[in-house]
Structure formats: C-alpha cells, structure tokens
C-alpha cells in the first residue's frame, strides 16, 4: 500500500454518495442498512460484506439483527472517509443488490414477490 491515503472533505464525500442512494453520512462514517427476510438472509448478507471487505483489505463495522445488517465504513489511519470507503460501498451495493432475473439471463434469482422465499428487501 504505497499510496498516501487521505480523508475526503465533506463535498467530496457527498459527491461520492451521489451514486449510492441508500448510503448516508453519519457520525464520520458511511452507513447503510440492509433489510433481509430473516436471520439466515442476514447471515448471508453479512458474509458477502465480510468477503468483499477482506478481499479489499478494508474492514467495516457491522451490526446484525434478525432482519437487518448495518454496515459502517471509515478508514482509521487518516481518521475519516476515504476513496477506499466509497469504492467498497459501491462494490457491496452492487453485489448485495444484484437481481439475476433483471438481467434476462439463465439465472432466475429468488422469487422476490413471494415472502416465503424473499431473502433481501431490494431497494
């Protein structure tokens, strides 16, 4: 990690959040709540976030409850939000919100209209 990591100013953070509709700036962190269909789905979302964070070598805070995962991103070394936080937020959003059925390919995706099978509450 040879490049200098710098905290973004509020204007840069808000510009970065423009493409992340459900993420917000809260207490010096980027924050997103994902609503799930229940505990098993909550664990799957947490696992996805954990995998992406570890692959990126960037580690968020997460809170889990029966039907919710709260993700908080910030960077400790410059004590603020960096481009790395925004990049990880975009990747998390892309993967967690992926709906195969909307792509028209071979993958159907979960039957989101049927509450018995819905795993995530898509925004």
Helix content: 25-40%
Strand content: 15-25%
Structural class label = alpha+beta
Q: Catalogue the unreliable spans.
A: none
Order of helices and strands: HEEHEEH
Strand order of the largest sheet: 1-2-4-3
Tell me what you see in this structure.
This protein is of the alpha+beta class and 123 residues long. The protein has a domain at 23-99: Gyrase A, domain 2, CATH 3.30.1360.20. 33% of the residues lie in helices and 17% in strands. It has three helices and four strands; from the N terminus they run αββαββα. The protein has helices at 10-17, 39-56, 83-96; strands spanning 24-26, 29-35, 61-65, 68-73. The chain has a four-stranded antiparallel β-sheet with strand order 1-2-4-3. A hairpin with a 2-residue loop joins strand 3 and strand 4 (68-73). Helix 2 packs antiparallel against helix 3 (83-96).
Notable characteristics:
33% helix; 4-stranded antiparallel β-sheet; alpha+beta; 123 residues; Gyrase A, domain 2
Q: Quick summary of this structure?
A:
This protein is α+β, with helices and mostly antiparallel strands and 123 residues long. It is built from 3 helices and 4 strands.
Write the layout of secondary structure elements.
Layout: H1 10-17, E1 24-26, E2 29-35, H2 39-56, E3 61-65, E4 68-73, H3 83-96
Antiparallel strand pairs: 1-2, 2-4, 3-4
């Amino acid at each position: 990690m040879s490049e200098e990591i710098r905290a973004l100013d509020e204007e840069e953070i808000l510009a970065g959040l423009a493409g992340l509709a459900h993420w917000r700036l809260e207490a010096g962190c980027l924050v997103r709540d994902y609503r799930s269909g229940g505990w098993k789905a909550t664990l799957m979302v947490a696992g996805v976030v954990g995998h992406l964070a570890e692959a990126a070598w960037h580690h968020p805070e997460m809170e889990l409850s029966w039907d919710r995962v709260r993700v908080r991103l910030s960077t400790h070394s410059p004590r603020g939000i960096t481009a790395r936080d925004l990049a990880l937020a975009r990747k998390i959003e892309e993967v967690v919100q992926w709906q195969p059925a909307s792509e028209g390919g071979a993958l159907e995706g979960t039957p989101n209209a049927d509450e018995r099978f819905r795993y995530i509450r898509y925004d």
